[in-house]
Design goal:
The complex is a heterodimer. Chain A is built from 15 helices and 8 strands. By secondary structure, chain A is α+β, with helices and mostly antiparallel strands. In chain A, the strands form 3 sheets. Chain A has a 3-stranded antiparallel sheet. Chain B has a single domain, classed as NADH:ubiquinone oxidoreductase Nqo5 subunit (Beta Polymerase, domain 2). The N and C termini of chain B lie far apart (68 Å). The chains are: A alpha+beta, B alpha/beta.
Chain lengths: 394, 207
Amino acid sequence: MSEAVETNPQPAASHYEVRPKPGGNGELPSDLLEISMGPQHPSTHGVFRMDVVLEGERVVKLKPIFGYLHRNHEKIAEGTTYLASIPYTDRLDYFCSLTNNWAYCLSVEKLAGLQVPERAEYIRVITAELTRLQNHTCLGGFLLQDMGATGTPLMYAFREREKILDLFESLTGARMMCNYMRFGGCRCDLPAGWLDQARSVVAEFPGFLDEFERLLNENEILMARTQGVGVLPAALAVNAGITGPMLRATGVNYDLRKVDHYGIYDRFQFRVPLGDHGDVYDRYMIRVLEMRESLKILEAALRDIPAGPIVDPKAKLRGFRPKVGEAYGRIEAPKGELGFYLISDGSPNPYRYRVRPPSFINLTILEDMCLGQHVADVVIILGSVDIVLGEVDR
Amino acid sequence: METLEQIKARAEAAVPGARLEIIRNGSPSEQHSLLARSEHALEVARFLRDDPALRLDYASNVTGVDWLDTVVKQTTKSRQVIDGVERDIEQTTEQKIPGYLEVVYHLYSMELKQGPVILRQRTAGRGAESRVASLTPVWRSAEFQEREAFDLYGIVFEGHPDLRRILMWDEFKDHPMRKDYVEPDDYEYEPTPHDEVLEKAKQHWPK
């Protein structure tokens, strides 16, 4: 990464003309076939469509088409108060509502200059890392499901996710739509016995991970289907704004928990796993290794969490009007960099409310990764991007 | 990292003819931004990406903002003698500031781990002249986000390789994120319309 990043920033040259010459690489020439994968297709993780042009089995052009779930989230948020948008952020990436809450609250705290008490920071770290655990386990399960391992890995993943969702339910009252964080802190304190319950979940999790890794990491079919598939060069990943495990699988060391030190992440010892090849296998492995690091953070946070207030006394719930200005705040969500850009005009509603969704921008290079691959691999490559359509379409 | 004033001075020296303006931000976040004119935006962006001290290789967030026409009222007080009586006279002058659309780029450096530097472009107006330079040739990450700004705000990015609607469907006419967007009156469908929706629905009934 030291030399100048000189990429071809233009989209990949994918036209109908890029047909391999007859007999050039041993493949028989055939007519092009245009198929529409999706929107109701089990591999697209929601309502998402890809217009794929195939030369035999090979992809020569792929255009993602989305917006089926578009409800103009940003316009809705500009029509309500700052506080009323928190439940809407749950619905962006509905797997990770707590990190969505955090990103939004962090931006509002930057905009209004609020401080977060120490205990609330610890609770935020704990809930965010638990969110990361359950997101990454599910990704592993879904990826294997896409590969044809129907059921077993996904059910194993969901069994573990259920334990984490139970924790969320006893803390926030909801399993998925948590609506938990508030400007300058959190909505409510931890219930009695919650920390012990969380500690036991965290203590049991490495056992599950060992099992999961033993089952999958050196699985011959997994390796054959994923290694060397959907390779993303590091320079293109940086230029295209790819973030999260997708970026780190290409070997670029960029984790906002280390770069921005938001919250209290500089107090914890953890490493940032990096990939070598930038293929689907690396993306899978990065997520497994990140779960191990999350467990380290969780152990330390659950050990050190202090007593104290959970919300900034200066933060107002009603009549909250930040000064005129703007702020951009971002966190390392499980899928990548989740940012919120807010402009205040001094009124109770944000003048401009913008979500920078990681999975939307990670789709930019979907075509580049799929060109020349088999159509069956498109499904896996899309699965390794880890998209949630609630966030892509907003 | 350098201050915004230093970046501005160096960018103006590096790109001939470029004039940048620093836009102050009053919030505690203190994220001030640089306003570039569209005709030089692409070169300024290239400078920001390639300069060895900045290396802003990563455009994190690209978004549009709609600023409507505003009317600034100024009242001036003066004392005048009218019909022999001294009176306070208030004179109100209205100054109309034309609206514009704005594109905001949040730039970071992955290599040097610094940022953000915020770059803005403004259109000349909100009508047909709402055009800015596309920065997708510099940062590929702007590709979808500029398409989104085109879709929802109607900002035309000149030089964008594939400027189409992205979230709304292709046949859609308006730009829903604009502040003066009015949704069509038959937008809300109810099987048995009543109240306001009934009144709106009646307009579409055959006479």
